[in-house]
Amino acid sequence: MTAKLAAESFAEGEANFRKLQAQAEEVNKAAQLSLQTLKAGGHLFFCGNGGSASDAQHIAAELVGRFMKERRALAATALHANTSTLTAVANDYSYDVIFSRQLEGLAKKGDVLFALSTSGNSKNVLKAAETAKAMGLKVIGLTGSKGGKLAELCDLCLKVPSDHTPRIQEMHIAVGHVICAIIDDAI
């Protein structure tokens, strides 16, 4: 990577984060919904593919472990983290149902699904959102600027202001950290 490309990447990221500030109230709504769910004894579920899976797992880990403050562990699960379940469901059924099948067995009405997809069109994430809605879960989407088909399935969709996958993923983890900070502050 040349110094020029590095500088351009940082400038693009900076511009996107400035635009993201306009969504502060929506991010707060996602945090408040998560907080209400946790206080009521509910569970937060996360799903995504590739880099979005990494971001989903990172956010879930911040909640179960510790983000900034010492507090009790919170109920959060990244649905792709159990490789035995993931591969068994993919093999026995279809990759498209790897998340929805787990929700059927683990989730209950009032829980929340965080569905991460840079395009908003990942089939398995869409199926998870559909299943979550049918089960009475709230769905919070994290997508790129267009939102894709996922935006239509969400109770709240945080469309970060970029169409460039690496920049979208950077903003998704930042949004996740802000949600964790708000939860930490309130618990």
SSE arrangement:
Blueprint: H1 3-20, H2 24-39, E1 44-47, H3 51-64, E2 76-78, H4 83-92, H5 100-106, E3 112-116, H6 123-135, E4 138-143, H7 150-153, E5 156-159, H8 165-186
Parallel strand pairs: 1-2, 1-3, 3-4, 4-5
Helix pairs in contact: 2-8, 3-8, 5-6
Textual characterization of the structure:
This protein is of the alpha/beta class and 187 residues long. It has one domain: Glucose-6-phosphate isomerase like protein, domain 1 (Rossmann fold, 3-Layer(aba) Sandwich), CATH 3.40.50.10490. Helices cover 56% and strands 12% of the residues. It has helices at 3-20, 24-39, 51-64, 83-92, 100-106, 123-135, 150-153, 165-186, and strands at residues 44-47, 76-78, 112-116, 138-143, 156-159. Strands 2-1-3-4-5 form a five-stranded parallel sheet, sandwiched between helices. The longest helix has 22 residues, at 165-186. The radius of gyration is 16 Å and the shape is globular. The N and C termini lie far apart (43 Å).
